[in-house]
Structure formats: C-alpha cells, structure tokens
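The data layer described in this paper is built around a simple, fixed record for each protein. Such a record has a labelled line for the sequence and another for the backbone structure tokens. For reference, a complete record is included directly beneath this paragraph.
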Amino acid sequence: MNLKFKNSLLMLEDRPKILINNKSYVITIPESKILKLLIENKNTSITKNDLIVTAWGHPDFIGPNSLAVAISNIRKIIEHDGLILKNIPKVGYKLIIDEHLKHQNRKININNRERPLDNVTLTKNSAIIRKLTSSPIQILIFSTLTYFVLYLIHSWVLIN
C-alpha cells in the first residue's frame, strides 16, 4: 500500500520507505505507522497516546523517548519536502500539508521573533566583519585597546 502526500510517497512494504523527489529514505515500521496515521489525519491533531498505540500496540511496551525519537526521525525526512510536523503542547502532533496553514505557521514564528536572515542582513554583517578584519594593523589596534581597557578596570579593583 502506498500513500501520496504533497511531493512524497510513503511506501508500506516489507521495508517501509519514503520517496521524496526521487530520493528514497528508509524508515522503521513504527515510524511508517505514525506517518500513515498523520497523513490520513493531515492538518488535525493526533494525541500522543493514539500515535503510540498505532505504532507499538500498547504504551507499556516502549521506552519513554521512543515516540520523540520516531517523530524526530520523521521530521528529518519530511522537511526535504517542505512539510511541517508540529508539536501541539499537551496534546500530540499535527502534520501540516495544506499551503495556507503552512504560511500561517510561518507568520506565528515571525511574530515570535524567529525570522529568517535575508540577503540584506547577511550583506550588512559581512561588510562589518570585513571592515573589522581588513588588516593586521586594525586587529593589533583593537587588541591593544581591549587590553588597555581591561588593565584600567583591573587596576581599580583592590585585591587584599
């Protein structure tokens, strides 16, 4: 059985794998079961317990970090297709496939002051770094001034 989502294909065979842009990524059977459930319920939250029961059958049969490790492995693969596997605090996880929801999620991250660096920012930072390290004389002057300031600060402190 195969499941198509965005530009990816989840192949549920003897050895489960994900095909993204003609690249094959092998995943474990529990990871494939988790991803299958998330794909079937895309853009909706799935509880952690439901994911555990789907993947391993019973919550008592797994270690405390098994779900987190499986989710981490899935995230590393599906990010190549631009998909988001979002943690819903105290609930579970949600696979965001819909373009509208993905852009809405980016706006939330930007409002939380997590913004991507643009070319203007990188150019400004590169210019500053080039100016500060353009010659050995400037490095020597900067080092000497730093040493002098630290010496003055240290000389005002009295150690008994």
